[in-house]
Amino acid sequence: MKTHDEAVAAAAELAAALAPGAVERDRNGAEAIPYEALALLDGSGLLAITVPAEDGGPGLGPSTLAEATRLIAAADPALAQVPQAHYLLIDVLAVHGGGELRERLFADVRAGRRIGNALAERGGKHAQDLKTRVAGGRLNGVKYYTTGALTSAWIAVSAVGEDGRLVLAFVPRDAPGVEVGTDWDVIGQRATISGTATFTDVPVEFALDYSRAYEGPQQLGARAQLVHAAIEVGIAGGALADARAYLRDKARPSTEAVRAGAGRAVEDPHVMYRYGRLATRVRAAESLLADAARTLDGIGRVPADAAAAARGSLAVAAAKAFGSEVAVEAGSELFALCGTSSAASKYDLDRHWRNARTHSVHDPVDWKYHHLAAWELADIQPPNHGQL
Length: 388
What we know:
It contains 13 helices and eight strands. By secondary structure, the protein is an alpha+beta fold. Residues 9-112 form the Acyl-CoA dehydrogenase/oxidase N-terminal domain.
């Protein structure tokens, strides 16, 4: 695929194929790796949409990626999250990769081979207090929240190099010494299977200096956060769609609504008010997402200066913070709209709230509002890191 419209159409087709199995995948969690669904994702052509044109890809931008992710997330947000880091890593390679590393990985991505991540660790004083090391050409360490790594072709692993700087090592998933577990036991986003990965004397052929990625103005954080925002907005839209379907086809009016003259649940004035309010907030979240994506389109992968980088980061921060709130709200509000019967486990409608609540705490949204206010009130530019 070469155009925005083709990519969005492919995403809509993939979403339609994923939707019927979303409930089962949510219930199975890590007990059943969704190989068939992931094969559909990998074979959709969407993995390569942001590969630069000079590297043989279509070179499509943030607006395309955000809309494609939103559509998939409305059907199954866990599957939409699997390639989130993949797209970040394409950006890293596009800006900082070179030589054989760039050529090899972009060729694999164009062929539908996914890059998983192993960036996060547990037990440190903060997120960048890493114990994983690369020394003597060997990688050793333990990672968690390794979304996409289990079924990927490559894994990008953050580690401290021998000179004390942060490096990003790219190792084949099937390299000796690589073990990726299925110990992912959470309330939502269960089918991401983002468990523990262990690296024991893994040979490192490809690596780059990751410290320099954040030493100047950058949009890696904003572009990565845009995908997270799209997942949240997609969850909100999926919850709203399920509420609408339930209200139209299954819900009965409450006794109070009948007394007030409502013959159907959709005629209940309180249901109409709450649904209308929620639908408006979902549309507002979608608009903020689209606006943030257009802002990043105009900035490009490498911002001209710190002011441009700040503009992109803050636009995405607003979309992510508000989208997270609306997703959690929609996942809860649908039960107030649809009534007691909608809480039956056979419908699995609680997955929307569980997915939203789990994904929304990926990084603290309160800080996004803080940085927005700091800019508006005191002209303080946001920090330059990977989560903004």
